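Researcher: Going back to the complex we discussed earlier. I've cleaned up the inputs and rechecked each line, so this should be the final set. Can you rerun the prediction on the complete assembly and write out the structure?
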Amino acid sequence: MFEIRTDLAVEEKESFPGNGGEVAGVSLREWRKAASSIKMTEVEILDAAGARAMGKPEGTYITMEAQKLGYQDEDYHKEVAQELACQLKRMVGNLKKARVLPVCGPLHVLAVGLGNPSVTPDALGPAVLGNLRVNRNLQTAQGLPEKAVLSGIVPGVLAQTGMETAEIVGGILHETSPDLIIAVDALAARSIRRLGTTIQLTNTGIQPGSGVGNHRHSLTYKSLGVPVVAIGVPTVVGAAAIVHDTISSMIGTLWSHMETKGMGDYLDQLEPDDQYQLICELLEPEFGSLYVTPPDIDQTVKRLSFTISEGIHGAFFGEEEDEEEPERG
Amino acid sequence: MFEIRTDLAVEEKESFPGNGGEVAGVSLREWRKAASSIKMTEVEILDAAGARAMGKPEGTYITMEAQKLGYQDEDYHKEVAQELACQLKRMVGNLKKARVLPVCGPLHVLAVGLGNPSVTPDALGPAVLGNLRVNRNLQTAQGLPEKAVLSGIVPGVLAQTGMETAEIVGGILHETSPDLIIAVDALAARSIRRLGTTIQLTNTGIQPGSGVGNHRHSLTYKSLGVPVVAIGVPTVVGAAAIVHDTISSMIGTLWSHMETKGMGDYLDQLEPDDQYQLICELLEPEFGSLYVTPPDIDQTVKRLSFTISEGIHGAFFGEEEDEEEPERG
Amino acid sequence: MFEIRTDLAVEEKESFPGNGGEVAGVSLREWRKAASSIKMTEVEILDAAGARAMGKPEGTYITMEAQKLGYQDEDYHKEVAQELACQLKRMVGNLKKARVLPVCGPLHVLAVGLGNPSVTPDALGPAVLGNLRVNRNLQTAQGLPEKAVLSGIVPGVLAQTGMETAEIVGGILHETSPDLIIAVDALAARSIRRLGTTIQLTNTGIQPGSGVGNHRHSLTYKSLGVPVVAIGVPTVVGAAAIVHDTISSMIGTLWSHMETKGMGDYLDQLEPDDQYQLICELLEPEFGSLYVTPPDIDQTVKRLSFTISEGIHGAFFGEEEDEEEPERG
Amino acid sequence: MFEIRTDLAVEEKESFPGNGGEVAGVSLREWRKAASSIKMTEVEILDAAGARAMGKPEGTYITMEAQKLGYQDEDYHKEVAQELACQLKRMVGNLKKARVLPVCGPLHVLAVGLGNPSVTPDALGPAVLGNLRVNRNLQTAQGLPEKAVLSGIVPGVLAQTGMETAEIVGGILHETSPDLIIAVDALAARSIRRLGTTIQLTNTGIQPGSGVGNHRHSLTYKSLGVPVVAIGVPTVVGAAAIVHDTISSMIGTLWSHMETKGMGDYLDQLEPDDQYQLICELLEPEFGSLYVTPPDIDQTVKRLSFTISEGIHGAFFGEEEDEEEPERG
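Model: Rerun complete. Updated structure for the full complex:
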């Protein structure tokens, strides 16, 4: 059976009645940096009830949305990279406060570029890794690192390696013992308008079934013993999601048409669950794995891979600044 | 406004009432090679009426369908490559009979790999060109060619070059004067099941709006003064097409449900044109350019690019065989 | 017979006695921008005698040398890009003064990325084109361009296309009528230390036998009817050149050793021409096409392709500044 | 100090006086398959004395030489692939006899594609992995494998990952416990004529300093606890090796010239060690890492990556045949 899903917590939240009204166990915070067109959202899933409702694990999900990310504006991409660096630093700071990361000494960070380098919308992770300036090799040769130690791997995909990403990453952990994993991945969204314009940052790692490639195993603190911060950008929408949305919208339209004619009784009974059932009957089984992607996805992946790699560099090698915790609204 | 289209003449034909029944000005022929699982279809658009009805220009469209093309079976791909070579030879033979191609002497063939090499489902043309063994450079150095002279170009896409493909190809024609163009392109289909399992061969060239990349200009005998044989494989389905199909199917289902309850009057009035209108209202405008593609499209493009390049080699450099014109059924 | 050559005019000049002393028909100017570590050299070949002596056509050759180009220092690359933009503007300005380029209205520039994208040290041209933001397609859709019209092509290499680059570019000229060609190419140097640290800019275009790929035909004002500015970076040294240099140096060493022992008579007679003859006897014939390249050439090509593309953007789309002609020293 | 080396045992052997005459602790066997133009050589280093003399560890080195490998002749490449499969099977069979590999049940083979995918002559390993059809993922889903279980990894290079290949491979071993590693690597040769025309197969694994990329650590049975069979093709010659060979040859020429004039005394004293010393003085220090490679190396890597991947498929998934041990000559 196909799955109608989104990898973005912010979209999951929006899908609740009242366009993302109060959900028990989930807190929401939205803000905008002054003079910036970047819309920030922080969804926090606080307990098991919230996790069940959202279908995502407990933790923090920060979303940066910016329609202009779709354009080739270098200044703007620099601004987004700085904000990403800033949020990444804050998330790492919180992991230090929680004693999940060592407080002193340079962190050893392993960056993992998930996805299939041969499939354009799934190539974001490998593209980011192609831009990263690793220094673990330099550090061991030239003495103690000052700020952070960075290494990186593009593990490939199951069909190319015959191995789960979790196996490859697990093996590398065993050999190199990093403190922190930064996993970069291309995501699936529900809304077309978020493709290439949104960056999600989360401390919950990578879940099974997530990403453009539908990862089969998790990369999480629990599964690996090392905290995993995931950075993702939606590059596809599941084909089933699009059909579902259109039909839901259509049923609404039909219903209002018919209601005026007193014929709405039947459609009225089509509850969301029934709608879903109906769509499943209509769609062919192979439909579940198909995805929708825009024609200029190659440019989007190229541009955002620079923005994200600069964000990672900024977080670990940038100037020290005091990042104030934004006030909770 | 988005467009619901297919680049496959065989699908256009199927869309007529009675699942592709008689259409004035269009002839259809289907056959299977004995002991082969390749289903062959030849659609011939015979006059202006047929062209109007089909939305495609007059000419011959040969389709090779083979579900097994989706698998990595080398013998099978060799069989398909041989059949493609055979049909390509036949088409070239007919162009010679029509005096559109010179009858004597080695043909000079320019292969054109259309599409965006950076976008996986649009990269079929460039991938085929990567496998071709051009010999125009060898021939000029070593004397007269025996069978055929092959050159090739990957012209790139408008957003990368700032130039229309028709301009680049036109310029190369002006300089090198080939007799024939073979244009290889990734296509859009209506049916998911045809993705990566169908090869279309046509003597009508490339039309505006066709291909994964929605070419803006034509590459045809009329526009270029040189006959253009196009080889294409569908690698995407337009997102709008999928939504349309699902909703059409849904309306049918709803209608039969409601008819039993005597409420079908309203939906009954939803003629195909109204349905289309309704869908257009529901979909966002940017939807038109989105496409649906399967997750293993990289493997498909790689495999089929070998099959097609071998087919082209076979047609122009292979052993001479007498290809009998199949009888018209 | 193999050829010991350099594509850099500055190296050709240095090879004259007295480390590049006075050569009739050749003027030399060297300067440094204040506070910059970029060493600038301008070699001007003024007449036929100079051209014969240098083995290069009449025209201007500007060289920017900067050892730090080998490192990943973004600020520095930005400085070099600005200087490249500045020199490119000056060269274009001189072409306008000479009425070879139109003085009024936006220039239409065709960028050509020469070289083989599949061979790392020859991939500079294609890499630069991958970073360029062409706008010819935008201009025609949205009205008159303000500053310049940019289009671009990666013509591939003879073995892949079966066509000469000059044929492909000539055809595109015929169709799109640009005012100016900017040809970007990877070069062969004599000195290892110049690999990846030098940029040469010349208004003489591309000569037969030049470049990593040993172009067979020229791309020049004379051959194409359009002025051609070439931007190149040396990425290889001919293997024969290295052997020649080492042996010359060895003969010198041996000679001084032997002279002290009174045995130098024979070696003394080994004039440069004899040395060359001797080396030719020693080397196998296939040696001529071999080249020497450093192991981190991929990083070099990636970095410099950004520097050069930014330089081109700066020259044609950057802010207007008054570029003063540096005083002739 | 630069190193004059070859990764080919057969070249090391040839470098001994008498063109590879008797060396204590080293056995040599040469043969040709009837009706085949593949020249086979097996060098066996039998003990520590042989290892010291050859500068390579004890073990078996099989070389397949075929000038025609440089051409695009599919039948010939198929023949070489079959012979490679045959030799690989024999080597695996000997590892089974030695109880280093399990005798019963399907082998689990991990293929490792060493080298830098972004540097053409170093990309052989990654290219072979791109052609391999791994099945470890299929086997676990569909029951017990029949013949062999294949997985594969492209570990990248130190400058890109910040990690040693030995760390990445070691980690994957820890997680997936293969029985055997097949490491594919591009090699450095001494002789230009062996570039792209020779395949070496050895059961000694990968040594520090070997390969185009000068691996820093070993991948061997001793270091990893799993037998490592290495398949390599020379794609570069060290620049220092070429200079050395030319100068050695030059000294010989000079010597004979001078001897006739009674002046050879000095040069006579230039023993090989002195020559080496002299060259070291003449060459710049950065020279050591430079390499020489032919201009059509991209085609060579592409062609041979298919030959080798087919050889690996044939060895583990091909038909069972009785491979007779060739008689020792």
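Model: Worth noting: The first strand of chain A starts at residue 26 and ends at 32.
Researcher: Good, that matches what I expected from the previous run.
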